[in-house]
Amino acid sequence: DAGVIQSPRHEVTEMGQEVTLRCKPISGHDYLFWYRQTMMRGLELLIYFNNNVPIDDSGMPEDRFSAKMPNASFSTLKIQPSEPRDSAVYFCASTTLLTRANYGYTFGSGTRLTVV
Amino acid sequence: AQSVSQHNHHVILSEAASLELGCNYSYGGTVNLFWYVQYPGQHLQLLLKYFSGDPLVKGIKGFEAEFIKSKFSFNLRKPSVQWSDTAEYFCAVNAGAAGNKLTFGGGTRVLVKP
User: Fold this and answer.
1) Residue of B42, B49, B52 with shortest CB distance to A104
2) Fewer Cβ neighbours under 10 Å: the N or C end of chain B?
């Protein structure tokens, strides 16, 4: 398996533009998580899905952020309009039900977003 | 709501020194505990995990962690660090009621000087 795949790896955009981040989870994983990492706030859970259904979106900062998971193999995180304070590394992670037998979350390589 | 505290934000030490990183969580019920490592420019990788049983857990690269239920702690240790252990380390907790949700601590940046 190629692991959790995120694209793009780097994104530089101007304030006010729409940004779409993409994630392909590991096949067979039925949980998908979006995290944001900044120096100030560390790792923050934005939203997570189970079987393509959003379960907890309480971490989504505001209405400018939206996430979808149209099928088991694809999810998007959209920011519209983007602002400089959205600059961060956005990680996607996937897992199955956490048990001793599995290994917790598998993280993607992240998307480094810079909004200028 | 569950929370995780890592009290050391930055640690600097020399090669061959011993390392201990603190992690405390706030949840009174059954928990599953994890340590992740993030090497510079890379994504998070699992170091070790605790679900039940022996409270002393051994992970990869010579790391171990001890679960002390009475102290709500899950400290990470390594007897002798190497320069390649320079990374950021995250403690995470999954509480029984939180389903598959992991809550991460703020991370500890470790710099090992050669």
Assistant:
1) B49
2) C
The residue among A79, A74, A100 whose CA lies nearest residue A14 is A79
Query: Is residue B1's pLDDT more than 70?
Result: no
- Confirm or reject contact between B8 and chain A (CB < 8 A): no
Cβ of residue B109 closer than 8 Å to a chain A Cβ: no
Q: What are phi and psi of B69, to 5 degrees?
A: -60, -40
Cβ-Cβ contacts under 8 Å, A99 against chain B: 51
HEC states along chain B?
Answer: CCEEECCCCEEEEECCCCEEECCEEECCCCEEEEEEEECCCCCEEEEEEECCCCCEEECHHHCEEEEEHHHCEEEEEECCCCHHHCEEEEEEEEEHHHCCCCEECCCEEEEEEC
| pLDDT the model gives residue B28 | 76
Overall average pLDDT of the B10-23 stretch:
96
Higher pLDDT, A76 or B43: A76
- Asked if B5 is an interface residue toward chain A (Cβ–Cβ < 8 A), one would say no
Q: Is B42 left (phi over 0), alpha (psi -120 to 50) or beta?
A: beta
Q: How confident is the model at residue B95 (pLDDT cuts 50, 70, 90)?
A: confident
CB-CB under 8 Å, A45 with B100: no
